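Look at a sample.

——
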Amino acid sequence: MSGNIPIRNLTAANWVLTGTAVLLSAGRFGIRYKTQRGFHADDYTHLLALLGLLAFSITYQLGFPTFIDVVEISDGTVPEPADFDAVVKRYRQYQTAVSITEWVTLWAVKFTFLLFYRLLFSVSKGFRTAWWLIFVFTALAFWVPITGVLTLCGPIGNFFNAGKFHLVD
């Protein structure tokens, strides 16, 4: 998972990039409010994306030790512990939260762009029709990765069962 990159470097990169995104977003919100005297739908989806990024970063940070444990167990660096099923369950919980927050964040960004383009280019009926088609397609496509995350191990009953999935491919 982390290869040869020390965990402190991953942590630093995680928070420097997240902090940069927060600062740039604060600037965007300030400019929008000052120039428009309010917010539009794309601002709210941008806020959702920012909150998703924060949830992703926090969850990923909290899950680092568990991710490393699983990698070390999988590659034989450390022996399998007696509470292996508990480690697997904890790993799956973190990994699921990280995956879902990642997809929510990415789709919130997609919707932010879609809503922004609607503001800019909604001058023709043809554009509005195309926009709605793309919007519906994007909304439906959101459920593909979410379903993939939740059915990674087959039926949902297998989700936290260590014997029903591969930890690391």
Q: What stands out?
A: Residues 114 and 120 are 10 Å apart (CA to CA). The mean pLDDT is 86.
